[in-house]
């Protein structure tokens, strides 16, 4: 005989019973049908849905842009001097890539075709997009690399020793909360307006965040790992280099990847002033285009920057997955390469020290019979 159902409790339905499981009532207010799958709390969407929904969002944004700039002159909802249409913006892309090259014409009025050598010169000209993009990336890599070289070791020390962390805490708080616009003026006063100022601006804007995130990652390592290492006879430097740093590295690298994307936006502020005949960078292109009321170039640069930043972020994410597959689910190609390199270095070190210890010292007789 089956047990009677308690009074006031409805019998379980097929919809509330999982496959092969016991009766579990659906949460109150859960949407029925396909909506339950689309709006399931903390559900992971399939990859194809992510692509489709992302493309739908971009298509909707472009459609709104096209609609508000539809027509000519006063017929538009937003005038052409304020917001050019998508077609007008894309038509200026060749001029942006080649730096606004002037087309030469024959006496009959026909355009003279340019050679590949001339086009390469145009691409690498002072106002061309490729050269300015290269200059901005170079400044970003130098400044952010310097911030990582300085911030990561200091962050490790702050994460390991609370008194060192207390010493650097005021600088960390000040660096993370200083307005970037004020920092631009400060770097102009300290470092001038040349290339060194751009690099130091990125360094000062990022080093406090790198230090703070690194210290937090080291402090987040569980104390059981440290206790186990000391129990096995490890020394303090072995705990730091063989326990704390390896366990904190995935979080540190993930933080660096996210900060690099933010630093890409910071470089625009550093390039407000151009020095001499050098390429001014992407920020200089925007400033010059605004002064010339060339809204098309401004929009093109604003569209290109996220695309380049996303490409860099995806490349760094691939490196992150391959370096730390246990944390981010990669195949571990770079992790195996690093391990093989470290093992080869250890073998070489042991070989050299073993030979040095086994070689006879002059003046001391050998103990071998």
Summarize the topology:
Layout: H1 34-38, H2 47-68, H3 86-91, H4 93-97, H5 116-123, H6 129-160, H7 162-177, H8 180-191, H9 195-219, H10 223-231, H11 236-270, H12 282-291, H13 295-323, H14 325-328, H15 333-358
Helix pairs in contact: 6-7, 6-9, 6-11, 6-12, 7-9, 8-9, 9-11, 10-11, 11-13, 12-13
Sheet with most strands: none
Report mean pLDDT, rounded to a whole number: 82
Supply Rg: 30 Å
Shape summary: globular
Briefly note the CATH topology name of one domain: MetI-like fold
CATH architecture of one domain: Orthogonal Bundle
CATH superfamily of one domain, called what?
MetI-like
The CATH top-level class label of one domain: Mainly Alpha
Structure description:
The protein has a domain at 129-283: MetI-like fold, CATH 1.10.3720. The chain is built from 15 helices and no strands. The radius of gyration is 30 Å and the shape is globular. The protein has helices spanning 34-38, 47-68, 86-91, 93-97, 116-123, 129-160, 162-177, 180-191, 195-219, 223-231, 236-270, 282-291, 295-323, 325-328, 333-358. It is 66% helix and 0% strand. It is an all-alpha fold and 369 residues long. It starts with 33 loop residues before the first helix and ends in an 11-residue tail after the last helix.
């Amino acid at each position: 005989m089956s047990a009677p159902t308690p009074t006031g409790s409805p019998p379980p339905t097929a919809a509330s019973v999982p496959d092969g499981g016991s009766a579990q009532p659906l949460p109150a207010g859960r949407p029925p049908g396909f909506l339950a799958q689309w709006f399931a709390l903390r559900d992971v969407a399939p990859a194809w849905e992510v692509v489709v929904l992302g493309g739908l969002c971009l298509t909707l944004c472009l459609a709104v842009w096209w609609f508000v700039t539809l027509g000519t002159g006063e017929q538009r909802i937003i005038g052409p001097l304020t917001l050019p249409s998508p077609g007008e913006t894309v038509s200026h892309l060749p001029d942006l890539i080649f730096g606004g090259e002037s087309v030469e014409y024959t006496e009959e009025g026909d355009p003279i075709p340019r050679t590949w050598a001339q086009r390469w010169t145009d691409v690498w000209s002072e106002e061309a997009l490729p050269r300015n993009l290269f200059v901005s990336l170079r400044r970003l890599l130098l400044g952010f690399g310097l911030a990582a070289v300085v911030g990561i070791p200091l962050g490790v020390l702050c994460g390991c020793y609370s008194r060192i962390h207390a010493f650097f805490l005021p600088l960390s708080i000040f660096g993370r909360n200083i307005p970037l616009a004020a920092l631009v003026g400060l770097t102009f006063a300290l470092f001038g307006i040349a290339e060194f100022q751009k690099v130091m601006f990125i360094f000062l804007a990022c080093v406090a965040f790198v230090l703070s995130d690194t210290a937090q990652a080291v402090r987040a390592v569980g104390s059981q790992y440290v206790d186990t290492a000391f129990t096995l006879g490890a020394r303090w430097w072995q705990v730091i280099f063989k326990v704390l740093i390896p366990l904190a590295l995935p979080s540190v690298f993930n933080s660096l990847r996210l900060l690099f994307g933010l630093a890409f936006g910071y470089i625009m502020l550093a390039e407000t002033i151009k020095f001499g005949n050098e390429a001014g960078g992407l920020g200089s292109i925007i400033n010059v285009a605004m002064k010339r009321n060339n809204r098309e170039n401004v929009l093109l640069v604003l569209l290109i920057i996220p695309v380049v930043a996303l490409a860099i972020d995806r490349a760094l994410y691939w490196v992150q997955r391959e370096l730390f597959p246990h944390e981010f689910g990669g195949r571990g190609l770079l992790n195996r390469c690093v391990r093989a390199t470290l093992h080869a270095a250890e073998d070489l070190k042991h070989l050299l020290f073993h030979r040095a210890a086994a070689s006879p010292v002059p003046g001391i007789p050998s103990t071998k019979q």
